[in-house]
Amino acid sequence: MSKIFHSVRLDADKCVGCTNCIKRCPTEAIRVRNKKAYIISDRCIDCGECIRVCPQHAKYAVMEHLSEKDKFRYKIALPAPALYGQFNNLENIDYVLTGLKKMGFDKVVEVSKAAEYISSATRNMMRTESLKKPVISTACPAVVRLIRIRFPNLIPNLLPLYAPVDFAAKIAREEAIKETGLKDEEIGVFFISPCPAKRTSIKNPLGYSKSGVDGAIAMKEIYPQLVHNMDKLSTDEVELINDSGIIGVSWASSGGEASGLLKERYLAADGIRNVINVLEELEDEKLNDLDFIELNSCTGGCVGGVLTVENPFVARARIQHLRKFMPVSCNSIRNKYDLEDFGLTEEVTPSPAMKLADNVIKAMRMMSKLKEIEASLPGLDCGICGAPSCRALADDIVRGYAEETDCVLHKIQVGGSNDWLPAPFRVKVMTEESGEEKNDEG
């Protein structure tokens, strides 16, 4: 890619250098130096974990404002299925979809509808035996970027199909142009998103050159006005818009996509740490008996995104309740689309973010030095140095971004003083001459 775009940003004025974020970042993309965090751009996957754990709210997501839609003559909303889990006592999705139209959108196309097409296309592809198994879902953009950076050997396992939101945009634009006669540039398509990674994938897509989505609006921004509009709706005003079933709506939570393939040999994992554990086992060839692996970086799936409103477990229960009133599926590619309509047009390539050097010999020398430095460090992975682990500090030292003295234990010499440390962190050291313990707290 020619440029790097990120939806997750850092407000340095709010940051106090607490190091909460560095331990949770799945790609070790955050460091704390001079009491301030900073994000290593080419390692960030916009998963939003730092937003979730920052007590100072110094990390935040940059999304499109609702008013952006007014730049277009014809406005289309693409609600993610996770949106339906945000409302209490909801038994008819058409209330949500009609509420969006009341907010100024001319048309609403469900992402869950597109998800059913993707499920149908995936089932057809799985029958051809042309995919490397186990196939890894590409629905979560944070997971795709994680694989590019930390698990590039697994790129051939990625499902080479559009994510539902991108296919929903394709459907929406084609229908709008046909119905209105407007030009493509006069039509604005906006995704109602549960997470910042979705916006990043729109602005900086992988597997294709340009997204059909013009912007992503955070669920938590649209929620108050949407609830207000839904409360004012009478039964007669509710339009019959819903065109998806159990399979499509189930994509909102973990396991929904995989279960829609109607196969038994699948695995579904959610939460970034669990995702990493699964990818490590897959890389070690421990999961080769599976056909399909669904991975979601957020706990519970998209219902756990950092831009949602409701507790993910409550939202998931609401989605389960909604399923009782729905058909199994309303959409299939049979006699309507070919597999080529869903396929990615560009190859997903490994990210060079973790490379020590382009020159192989230089990289090997740096790796040797890295291991030597790592062996000299205490191995506590305490994070006090501002790096998430001793290995990460060693990596920074080799790259010239840090020094060994950044490790606090290097400052505690035999017979030396710990006075520079806060009292709770001072330790007993041995005097070189007598071998007796001396407590630096006095």
Describe, in plain words, how this protein is organized in 3D.
With 442 residues, the protein is an alpha/beta fold. It has 3 domains: 8-61, Alpha-Beta Plaits (2-Layer Sandwich); 66-341, no CATH class; 356-439, no CATH class. The protein has helices spanning 20-24, 49-53, 93-102, 111-128, 141-150, 164-180, 196-203, 219-232, 246-249, 256-259, 272-283, 312-323, 360-376, 390-399, and strands at 8-10, 30-33, 36-39, 59-61, 74-79, 107-108, 135-136, 187-193, 215-218, 266-270, 292-296, 428-430, 437-439. Strand 5 (74-79), helix 3 (93-102) and strand 6 (107-108) form a beta-alpha-beta unit. The radius of gyration is 25 Å and the shape is globular. The model is unreliable at 425-442 (pLDDT under 50).
Shape: globular
Major sheet: size, sense and barrel closure? 4 strands, parallel
Radius of gyration, in angstroms, nearest whole number? 25 Å
Number of strands: 13
Stretches where pLDDT is under 50 for at least 5 consecutive residues are: 425-442
What's the layout of helices and strands?
Blueprint: E1 8-10, H1 20-24, E2 30-33, E3 36-39, H2 49-53, E4 59-61, E5 74-79, H3 93-102, E6 107-108, H4 111-128, E7 135-136, H5 141-150, H6 164-180, E8 187-193, H7 196-203, E9 215-218, H8 219-232, H9 246-249, H10 256-259, E10 266-270, H11 272-283, E11 292-296, H12 312-323, H13 360-376, H14 390-399, E12 428-430, E13 437-439
Parallel strand pairs: 5-6, 5-8, 7-11, 8-9, 10-11
Antiparallel strand pairs: 1-4, 2-3, 12-13
Helix pairs in contact: 3-8, 4-6, 13-14
